[in-house]
Here is the input.
Amino acid sequence: MAYSEKVMDHFKNPRNVGVIEDASGVAEVGNAKCGDIMKMYLKIDGNETITDVKFNTFGCGAAIATSSMATELIKGRSVADALKLTNSAVVEALEGLPPVKIHCSVLAEQAVKSAVSDYYRKRGLTPPPEAIIDEHASEHVYEAEEAALAAAKAEG
Here is the structure.
């Protein structure tokens, strides 16, 4: 599967790149297996609306595109809505990803949820269960992608 035009657009022209110095919540997530690292910054107002979101990603084109799309999907939304973001929603918004790049969308979901979790902790609150991430989820998906690719090569 080739990259969609939307993936290429978000890779070549990523939205919301940068740093928020006085961020309400910050997270850094990574995948040790592939080397992708995402850092996300949230600015949240008193109504728990995400008024600004920025990211910096070190990784492949899919990692940059999923980070960019994730920020677009949560900007202007409530914290509760941001916690509902799934990697599937990111993939759908990008009009698909090659199967071996799905782990990038998992990292984007993890970055959002981890930044929200940090926001709650900074306020002295316990993050809601949906903000707690499996720090190895992206690695598990990556391993499954690699196994499927190896199996396909062995068959082919």
